[in-house]
Design brief:
The complex is a heterodimer of chains A (about 200) and B (about 45). Chain A has nine helices and five strands. Chain A is of the alpha/beta class. Chain A has a single domain (about 10-204), classed as Vaccinia Virus protein VP39 (Rossmann fold, 3-Layer(aba) Sandwich). In chain A, strands 3-2-1-4-5 form a five-stranded parallel beta sheet. Chain B is built from two helices and two strands. Chain B is of the alpha+beta class. The two termini of chain B are about 20 Å apart. Chain B has one domain (about 1-45). Classes of the chains: A alpha/beta (about 200), B alpha+beta (about 45). Strand 5 (about 175-185) of chain A pairs antiparallel with strand 2 (about 35-45) of chain B, so a sheet runs across the interface.
Chain lengths: ~200, ~45
């Protein structure tokens, strides 16, 4: 179950709050937040391989704040094109880059400048030139239609108030026969209008 | 989530794994109250 956007939610304010929250995470990933960050969390609660994460630059792994593990599902195709929606500091992109190999390509999409700076630095440090990062909103991706083999994402689509627009955009960029494999939060109960209008809960 | 993806045109949409992503955070109680957890999803575009 996803969270439907209440009619009276200020979507611009929500975007601004999301950007501000994750800019803080990028600047100080060890700060006080109401969600976990980092590779130890990813390994302990989400099933990532801690040794593999420790082989990546900390600039990419420390701010990781995903909620699941897209790589538990199908293997990424060698030589394929992968897009990470809401790539943050780039940890999942670097993992994807290793999986698709040097003939593949990985594009990380994020709207937070501080995260993009970390991600680009991490890709250089990891020597993975098949990764690039683009600043964009999830509802307007700078990618050709039918150009992507696999879309991954981790804990980000729930932050978008216009989920239908996001899913339409993902459908546009995925090749026929391609797929989404992503992690996100689900809510097990029907939420009141008051709860759904609480931006603090959305940004977490 | 699954219904929304199906309505767009994705096929074989499934939730595959579930995660207690908020365990040990300050929002753990809120997450438990509303049944909030992490989940993996997979969805295919027809060939």
């Amino acid at each position: 179950m996803s969270i439907a956007c209440p009619v009276n939610l200020d979507r611009d304010k929500l975007r601004s709050e999301v950007r501000a929250t994750y800019a803080k995470v990028a600047e100080n990933p060890h700060g006080e937040f109401h969600f976990h960050r980092g590779p130890e969390y990813a390994a302990r609660l989400l099933g990532y391989d801690l040794a593999e994460l420790r082989s990546l630059p900390q600039t990419a792994t420390a701010p990781f704040a995903g909620v699941g593990n897209p790589y538990m599902m199908d293997a990424l195709p060698s030589g394929g094109t992968v897009v990470d929606i809401g790539s943050g500091a780039g940890m999942d992109c670097l993992l994807a880059a290793r999986r698709v190999g040097p003939t593949g390509s990985v594009v990380g999409i994020d709207m937070t400048d501080a995260m993009l700076a970390r991600a680009r630095s991490g890709a250089v440090e990891a020597n993975l030139p098949q990764v690039r990062f683009e600043k964009a909103d999830m509802t307007g991706l700078p990618l050709d239609s039918g150009s992507v083999d696999v879309v991954v994402s981790n804990g980000v689509i729930n932050l978008a108030p216009e989920k239908e627009a996001v899913f339409n955009e993902l459908f546009r960029i995925v090749k026929p026969g391609g797929r989404l494999q992503f992690a996100d939060i689900i809510v097990g109960t029907e939420l009141s209008e008051e709860v759904r209008s609480n931006i603090d809960l959305w940004t977490g | 989530m699954i219904e929304a993806l199906q309505q767009i045109g994705f096929q074989d949409v499934r939730a595959c794994h579930f995660f207690n992503s908020f365990a040990g955070t300050t929002k753990e109680g809120v997450a438990r109250k509303y049944g909030v957890q992490g989940a993996n999803f997979i969805a295919y575009k027809a060939a």
